[in-house]
Protein backbone atom coordinates (compact mmCIF):
# COMPACT_ATOMS: atom_id res chain seq x y z
CA UNK A 1 0.00 0.00 0.00
CA UNK A 2 1.38 3.36 -1.00
CA UNK A 3 0.73 6.40 1.09
CA UNK A 4 1.39 9.97 0.27
CA UNK A 5 3.08 12.00 2.88
CA UNK A 6 1.17 15.03 4.15
CA UNK A 7 2.35 17.87 6.25
CA UNK A 8 0.38 18.64 9.40
CA UNK A 9 -2.49 21.02 8.67
CA UNK A 10 -2.54 20.26 4.94
CA UNK A 11 -5.49 18.78 3.12
CA UNK A 12 -5.68 15.39 1.44
CA UNK A 13 -5.39 15.33 -2.35
CA UNK A 14 -8.61 16.10 -4.25
CA UNK A 15 -9.90 15.26 -7.65
CA UNK A 16 -9.59 18.30 -9.93
CA UNK A 17 -11.73 16.94 -12.73
CA UNK A 18 -15.32 17.34 -11.50
CA UNK A 19 -16.83 15.53 -14.49
CA UNK A 20 -18.08 12.07 -13.83
CA UNK A 21 -17.83 9.37 -16.44
CA UNK A 22 -21.13 8.73 -18.19
CA UNK A 23 -23.02 11.31 -16.17
CA UNK A 24 -25.64 13.58 -17.66
CA UNK A 25 -24.69 17.22 -18.08
CA UNK A 26 -25.11 19.29 -14.95
CA UNK A 27 -28.42 21.11 -14.74
CA UNK A 28 -28.28 24.76 -13.88
CA UNK A 29 -31.21 26.50 -12.28
CA UNK A 30 -32.64 29.36 -14.31
CA UNK A 31 -32.02 32.77 -12.77
CA UNK A 32 -34.97 34.19 -10.84
CA UNK A 33 -37.23 36.56 -12.74
CA UNK A 34 -36.91 40.25 -11.82
CA UNK A 35 -40.58 40.29 -10.81
CA UNK A 36 -39.93 37.56 -8.22
CA UNK A 37 -36.83 39.28 -6.85
CA UNK A 38 -38.50 42.68 -6.53
CA UNK A 39 -41.71 41.30 -5.05
CA UNK A 40 -39.66 39.66 -2.27
CA UNK A 41 -37.55 42.78 -1.72
CA UNK A 42 -40.56 45.08 -1.58
CA UNK A 43 -42.42 42.73 0.75
CA UNK A 44 -39.43 42.56 3.10
CA UNK A 45 -39.38 46.36 3.37
CA UNK A 46 -43.14 46.80 3.64
CA UNK A 47 -43.43 44.15 6.33
CA UNK A 48 -40.65 45.74 8.39
CA UNK A 49 -38.08 42.96 7.98
CA UNK A 50 -35.64 45.14 6.00
CA UNK A 51 -34.98 48.86 6.24
CA UNK A 52 -36.32 51.13 3.52
CA UNK A 53 -32.84 52.33 2.61
CA UNK A 54 -31.97 48.80 1.45
CA UNK A 55 -34.04 49.61 -1.66
CA UNK A 56 -32.30 52.91 -2.37
CA UNK A 57 -30.20 51.62 -5.28
CA UNK A 58 -33.08 49.49 -6.58
CA UNK A 59 -35.56 52.35 -7.02
CA UNK A 60 -35.77 55.35 -9.32
CA UNK A 61 -37.54 58.67 -8.97
CA UNK A 62 -40.62 58.85 -6.81
CA UNK A 63 -40.73 55.09 -6.16
CA UNK A 64 -38.40 55.38 -3.15
CA UNK A 65 -40.61 58.09 -1.60
CA UNK A 66 -43.71 55.95 -2.22
CA UNK A 67 -42.02 52.94 -0.65
CA UNK A 68 -40.93 54.93 2.41
CA UNK A 69 -44.44 56.38 2.77
CA UNK A 70 -46.03 52.93 2.58
CA UNK A 71 -43.49 51.33 4.94
CA UNK A 72 -44.08 54.09 7.49
CA UNK A 73 -47.76 53.18 7.63
CA UNK A 74 -46.91 49.53 8.30
CA UNK A 75 -49.71 48.16 6.14
CA UNK A 76 -48.10 44.71 5.77
CA UNK A 77 -46.70 44.40 9.29
CA UNK A 78 -48.23 41.53 11.21
CA UNK A 79 -47.87 40.09 14.67
CA UNK A 80 -48.46 36.51 13.60
CA UNK A 81 -47.35 34.79 10.45
CA UNK A 82 -44.90 36.60 8.20
CA UNK A 83 -46.46 37.84 4.94
CA UNK A 84 -45.54 35.81 1.86
CA UNK A 85 -45.84 36.35 -1.88
CA UNK A 86 -48.53 33.94 -3.01
CA UNK A 87 -48.70 34.75 -6.71
CA UNK A 88 -47.11 37.14 -9.20
CA UNK A 89 -48.42 38.28 -12.54
CA UNK A 90 -46.96 40.76 -14.98
CA UNK A 91 -47.48 42.62 -18.24
CA UNK A 92 -44.79 44.04 -20.53
CA UNK A 93 -46.21 47.28 -22.02
CA UNK A 94 -42.99 47.75 -24.00
CA UNK A 95 -39.55 46.16 -24.15
CA UNK A 96 -37.60 47.06 -21.02
CA UNK A 97 -40.66 47.74 -18.83
CA UNK A 98 -42.67 45.39 -16.63
CA UNK A 99 -45.86 46.18 -14.75
CA UNK A 100 -46.37 43.53 -12.10
CA UNK A 101 -48.81 42.62 -9.36
CA UNK A 102 -48.36 40.32 -6.41
CA UNK A 103 -50.89 38.66 -4.15
CA UNK A 104 -49.61 38.85 -0.59
CA UNK A 105 -50.91 36.39 1.98
CA UNK A 106 -50.88 37.69 5.56
CA UNK A 107 -52.34 34.95 7.67
CA UNK A 108 -55.86 34.34 6.34
CA UNK A 109 -56.00 37.71 4.53
CA UNK A 110 -55.01 38.33 0.91
CA UNK A 111 -53.63 41.72 -0.13
CA UNK A 112 -52.52 43.27 -3.41
CA UNK A 113 -49.28 45.00 -4.35
CA UNK A 114 -48.45 46.51 -7.73
CA UNK A 115 -45.08 47.75 -8.97
CA UNK A 116 -43.37 48.82 -12.16
CA UNK A 117 -39.85 47.83 -13.21
CA UNK A 118 -37.74 49.44 -15.90
CA UNK A 119 -34.52 48.14 -17.43
CA UNK A 120 -31.72 50.71 -17.23
CA UNK A 121 -28.93 51.30 -19.76
CA UNK A 122 -26.59 49.61 -17.26
CA UNK A 123 -28.66 46.40 -17.63
CA UNK A 124 -30.22 46.51 -14.16
CA UNK A 125 -33.88 46.48 -13.23
CA UNK A 126 -35.11 49.41 -11.14
CA UNK A 127 -38.47 49.89 -9.48
CA UNK A 128 -40.16 53.08 -10.71
CA UNK A 129 -43.52 52.78 -8.91
CA UNK A 130 -45.05 50.81 -6.06
CA UNK A 131 -48.63 50.72 -4.76
CA UNK A 132 -50.60 48.84 -2.14
CA UNK A 133 -54.31 48.64 -1.59
CA UNK A 134 -55.67 51.61 0.29
CA UNK A 135 -54.70 55.27 0.30
CA UNK A 136 -52.01 56.55 -2.03
CA UNK A 137 -49.20 58.93 -1.29
CA UNK A 138 -50.28 62.54 -1.90
CA UNK A 139 -49.00 64.12 -5.11
CA UNK A 140 -46.08 66.56 -4.92
CA UNK A 141 -47.25 70.17 -4.88
CA UNK A 142 -45.46 71.74 -7.85
Question: How are the elements arranged and paired?
Answer:
Layout: H1 34-46, H2 63-73, E1 84-94, E2 97-106, E3 109-119, E4 125-132
Antiparallel strand pairs: 1-2, 2-3, 3-4
What does this entry look like structurally?
- The protein has 142 residues and is α+β, with helices and mostly antiparallel strands.
- The protein has a domain at 34-132: Roll (Nuclear Transport Factor 2, Chain: A).
- Helix content is 17%, strand content 28%.
- It contains 2 helices and 4 strands, in the order ααββββ.
- The protein has helices at residues 34-46, 63-73; strands at 84-94, 97-106, 109-119, 125-132.
- It has a 4-stranded antiparallel β-sheet.
- Strand 1 and strand 2 (97-106) form a beta hairpin.
- The longest helix has 13 residues, at 34-46.
- The chain is elongated.
Describe the strand arrangement of the main beta sheet, using strand numbers: 1-2-3-4
CATH level-1 class of one domain:
Alpha Beta
Strand fraction equals 25-35%
Secondary-structure element order, N to C: HHEEEE
By DSSP, the count of extended strands is 4
- Categorize the overall geometry: elongated
CATH architectural label of one domain: Roll
Q: Total number of helical segments?
A: 2
Radius of gyration in whole Å, from Cα?
23 Å
Mean pLDDT: 86
Span between N and C termini? 85 Å
Helix-strand category = alpha+beta
Helix content: 10-25%
Low-confidence spans: none
Largest sheet: 4 strands, antiparallel
Q: What is the name of the CATH topology of one domain?
A: Nuclear Transport Factor 2, Chain: A
Amino acid sequence: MTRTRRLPGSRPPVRHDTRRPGAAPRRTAPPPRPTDVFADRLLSVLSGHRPVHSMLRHTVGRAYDELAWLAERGTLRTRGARPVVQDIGYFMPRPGAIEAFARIATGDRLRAMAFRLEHTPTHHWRCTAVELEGPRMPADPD
